[in-house]
Structure to design on (231 residues):
DNA sequence: ACATTAACGATGA
DNA sequence: TCATCGTTAATGT
């Protein structure tokens, strides 16, 4: 185990937007950014809380979700290690519309909103990276709607799993996803039992391997093809 | 049809 | 011991 705090610098250094910044800009980012750990199940951001930070997942996995009045919940996004997220609320300066919850023990980096906005003002490269990020999210949700309307359940699960490896949004996701089938279901809009069946079909197709609390992706391109539709 | 909830036992950490 | 998994049965749209 690493000492808390010791790897924040490395995490920032390996973040995908890092190459857009000057050494001086990077220095401010290092000075302003903090890190916190969360137990599995802990809330990282309450729904409705002010968006004071832009966040990066140093380790673990988060989800963005909402809970309806009747108690049922749905997940809008899984956020694996290596991802930066929350730019929507940080840009608007509005309360967070959704809750952020750790689905396993996680470490999260917090960049103050003012620093994030300052980078957008000061760095064309960073601004461009943020535009690409927002565009990738838009593309993801359009594809998700397409999948819901045109594809069967198994293809949808294939899409939702493969999107955790989206090169812009989630550039460094580990092939071994430490995630329960319950969470795969929530991510795919399915009951756990159906997520289980879909995952077994994908395993039979040789695209992934099911282990206890772990989905090991064996063939990412195959998963993406499967998500586009199959015989 | 096909998805959902409920329920059960089995199994892994 | 608790979380997770695999499965089946009843139920709902």
């Amino acid at each position: 185990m690493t000492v808390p705090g010791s790897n924040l610098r490395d995490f920032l250094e390996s973040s995908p937007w890092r190459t857009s910044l000057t050494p001086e800009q990077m220095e401010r980012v290092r000075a302003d950014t903090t890190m916190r750990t969360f137990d599995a199940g802990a809330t990282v951001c309450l729904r409705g809380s002010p968006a004071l930070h832009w966040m990066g997942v140093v380790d673990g996995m988060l989800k963005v979700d909402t809970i309806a009045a009747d108690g049922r919940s749905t997940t809008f996004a899984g956020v694996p290690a290596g991802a930066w997220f929350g730019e929507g609320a940080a840009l608007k300066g509005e309360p967070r519309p959704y809750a952020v919850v750790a689905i396993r023990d996680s470490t999260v980096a917090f960049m103050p909103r003012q620093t994030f906005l300052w980078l957008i003002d000061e760095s064309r490269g960073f601004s461009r990276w943020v535009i690409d990020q927002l565009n990738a999210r838009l593309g993801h949700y359009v594809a998700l709607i397409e999948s819901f309307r045109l594809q069967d359940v198994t293809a949808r699960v294939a899409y939702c799993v493969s999107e955790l490896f989206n090169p812009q949004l989630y550039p460094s996701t580990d092939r071994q996803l430490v995630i329960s089938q319950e969470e795969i279901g929530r991510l795919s809009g399915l009951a756990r039992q159906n997520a289980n069946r879909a995952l077994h079909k994908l395993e039979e197709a040789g695209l992934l391997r099911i282990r206890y609390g772990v989905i090991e992706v064996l063939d990412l391109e195959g998963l993406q093809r499967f998500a586009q539709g199959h015989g």
About this structure: Chain A is about 45% helix and 25% strand. Residues 153, 190-191, 193-194, 212-213 of chain A lie near DNA strand B (CB under 10 Å from a C1'). Chain A has a mean pLDDT of 94. Residues 124-150 of chain A form the longest helix (27 residues).
